Amino acid sequence: MAESTLLSMAARGPDALQPGFVRTPATTACVRPTVARVDPTALIDNMRSIRRLVGDDVRVLGVVKADGYGHGAVQTARCALEAGAWGLAVSLVEEGVELRSAGVTAPIVVLGGPFPGSEPLVVACGLRPVVWDVEHLRRLASAARAAGGRCAVHLKIDTGMSRLGCLCDELPALLDCFSTECADVLDLEGAMTHLACADERDEAPTVRQLDAFTAALSTFEGRGLRPAIRHVCNSAGLSRFPNARYDMVRPGIAMYGSAGHTAYLLDGIRPALTVASRVFGLRTLPPGAQVSYGHTTTLQRESVIAIVPVGYEDGYPANLSGKAHVLIQGRRCPVVGRVTMDTSLIDVTDLPQVRVGDEVILLGRQDSEQIAAHDLASWSGITTYEVFCGISKRVPRS
Ligand SMILES: Cc1ncc(COP(=O)(O)O)c(C=O)c1O
Q1: Strands (E), the chain
Q2: How far is the CA of 119 from the centre of ligand 1 (A)?
Q3: Residue 13 lies in a domain
Q4: Residue 26 within any structural domain of the chain
Q5: Same structural domain for residues 279 and 331?
Q6: Catalytic: 323?
């Protein structure tokens, strides 16, 4: 998107963020009963639990990229800040602009780095980009000079993720470029790295990354540079490697009440997202009936099948077919046959009281039963992150 468009969107506020978007009339906004409900109290409580765990000396940067992992970036940001987060992290400049347009004034770190052309917007919106290349520094410095302003940056070192960040042996040249060419307008606020294996059982790769980060910090020291905020840990990192919390931690998935791996679920957190629908129809089918595309399931007995209006277009993955359960009347009921684009079929033969209109929980709690993100992840062979981020825009959030 052109820089001028983004700048004018930032100036005009949240309604300007989707040019050409026509608001759905309220009467048609939520006809289909498939919805995602976000519990702000859970988001706030989760952030408070994280803050209690890390203590007052460690800042918390709430990661709200990818629309707050599907929970809604603006609402999640407000909850995180209400619970005492120092700031927020997004991936894209556009995501930072969305928060600023919604009135969020807290520090916003842009994890994905500054794409060429985004620098004036970064400076105008007071975003704090992660940088790892001399060109990032030079372009940001010239945008800051042109605007007569300053820009805080977080310098990222690639200690073993092999993705974003400067390699350890590139660091001296990058720091020299900062000191000699950019220090008049850029503030070296942060030094950071990202862990590749924080939720893997083997701790050795993380220990190697932490050693490399310690060595990188001495390179800063050797040049008289002391970034105020050193940060390394995502959710799994902050719970498993307390010595690596440094000055700030960057939890994402823990704030949403989940974990990459169930073994590293933080104490005291709970899921904030429920995805629910309702029984749209009921059909009694004879033994031997074959259901859904490909006839992958043949019914072994006379069965009552509930039709539920949710499918892979909503982010209910096709490979849940024949593996997942949903909750109806507080009981677990199996998904039968292939999940299709818009519809899933549930075997409710063992629920004699089931009625059209009954609530169906696809993700979340009903009475004492729960379908967790890691259940959906293990049934479908994806990660919990993909479960959250996969819930599509077609599912209204409330
Ligand atoms: C750089 C960085 N920090 C922190 C996080 C948050 O990770 P998690 O959701 O595992 O806490 C992410 C997420 O991908 C990230 O890319």
Answers
A1: 35-38, 59-63, 87-90, 108-110, 128-131, 151-158, 166-167, 186-192, 229-231, 248-249, 273-278, 281-285, 290-291, 297-298, 303-308, 325-328, 331-336, 344-347, 359-366, 369-371
A2: 23
A3: no
A4: no
A5: yes
A6: no
